[in-house]
Amino acid sequence: PPLDEILNLHDFEAIAKQVMAEKAWAYYSSAADDEITNRENHAAYHRLWFRPQILVDVTKVDWSTTILGHRSSMPVYITATALGKLGHPDGELNLTRAAAKHGVIQMIPTLASCSFDEILDAAQPGQVQFFQLYVNKDRDITKRIVQHAEKRGIKGLFITVDAPQLGRREKDMRMKFEADDPSEVRKSGSDGVDRSQGAARAISSFIDPGLKWADLAWFKSITNMPLILKGVQRWEDALKAYDLGLAGVVLSNHGGRQLDFARSGIEVLVEVVTHLKEKRGLSFPNEKFQLFVDGGVRRATDVLKAIALGATAVGVGRPFLYAFSSYGQEGVEKALQILHDEFEMNMRLLGATSIANITPDLVDTSNISSH
Ligand code: FNR
To answer: What number of other Cβ atoms are within 10 A of residue 364's Cβ?
Structure first.
């Protein structure tokens, strides 16, 4: 169907399922084990209800914000997803170019299909990008990658901490991974790639399961980029990250692709905010220690709930993959435009004229427990 018949982010998924190559669909859509967490990610938002305010002048509403100190047209960033060329020949460049047009931030994955420099070169002057890091067993390789990223102007280093081993994504594992295009595995840094068990396992054997808290001091010694842990799932770990002086955490279960029965990011957000307030007197959103959430976000209303509860911004993954797999760069632009329109309408209906006015009282959290 033509792009103007796409009404929401869910539509891209339905179309992608029909038009994508089976192997690519399996890799993008799959999640761990019985995919319970994957379904829960979106469902968790259904337990939160709004308490809108009436009779506020909402002629003008503004949903722009800052993320790690950088302007963003909305409190949404494009999160890191590997292997963009499985879905479209331009791979991650679709995201880079659409992000530039819409003034949003792209997080570049370690396992991009396009090379890191190709993605940086496709960016507009001044375009802000983050980098997602999988830590290699060979720390010299990791050091080189991190320092190169900093030199090229990356504004935040998101270290993935929820994947000491890749989860079992059985849909993907049933597919034999045959990278026709060697660039699909370019960044893996792994020799002896096992191609018999799907794309994810083929590209991930270099990731270090020995990564531990004590290593974070080393990261601080090799870079001045803000460090953020991606994949925090309990308040105790968020507190450790804060005490180590990191710039923030992403409350995420990797799109349900790692530990099945991990809770949703939005649920974890509630407990993190409660405990960091209680134990360190922090209030959120917080400039010094920023909370991010991802997983299952498909509507501006989902984003607004997370913002109200203390998140600085929210990551969106699969919808953009499905958008470019079906329509290329224009698809991603359309997805961002849909979110833009949803923000405008829903901010008006909530009676909030700016992101600063998206406050906790706008959400009824009585269906979510704070562990
Ligand atoms: C991911 N994600 C991910 N995360 C990461 O830290 N490194 C990576 O290489 C990848 N790769 C990846 C590939 C694909 C196909 C998907 C769907 C996801 C996880 C991603 O950053 C994010 O946590 C989730 O995608 C968010 O959930 P939604 O928006 O996809 O539901």
So the answer is: 12
Burial class (CB in 10 A: 0-12, 13-18, 19+), 209: exposed
Decide: pTM greater than 0.80: yes
**Crossing angle for the helix pair 300-308 and 318-350, to the nearest 10 degrees:** 70
Q: Which two tokens stand for residue 7?
A: 């009404």
* 254 is an active site residue: yes
Helices (H) and strands (E) in the chain, counts: 13, 12
DSSP state of 153: T
Paired tokens of 19: 């038009």
Mean pLDDT of the residues in the chain? 93
| Percentage of residues of the chain with pLDDT beyond 90 | 88
Any idea what DSSP says for residue 263? Answer: P
Rounded CA separation 240/246 (Å): 9
State the average pLDDT over residues 311-336.
98
ipTM surpasses cut 0.85: yes
Closest CA to 11 of 295, 338, 265: 338
Report the Cα–Cα distance between both ends of the chain, in Å, rounded. Answer: 45
Any ligand 1 atom below 6 A from CB of 37:
no
pLDDT band at 160 (very low <50, low <70, confident <90, very high): very high
Two tokens, residue 276: 């960091």
- Dist CA 127 CA 169 (whole Å): 34
Can you tell me the distance from the alpha carbon of 248 to that of 226, in angstroms, rounded to the nearest whole number? 8
**Ligand 1 contact via 230 beta carbon (within 6 Å):** yes
Q: How far apart are CA 152 and CA 147, in angstroms?
A: 9
Ligand 1 within 6 A of 248 CB? no
Ligand 1: which atom is nearest the Cα of residue 28? 15
Distance of CA 28 to the CA centre of its chain: 14
Q: How far apart are CA 32 and CA 40, in angstroms?
A: 12
Task: Name the token pair of 68.
Answer: 């790690």
Pocket probe mutation, ligand 1, options 81, 157, 162, 266, max atoms within 8 Å of Cβ = 81
User: How far does residue 344's CA lie from ligand 1's centre (Å)?
Assistant: 27
Closest C-alpha residue for ligand 1 atom 24: 255
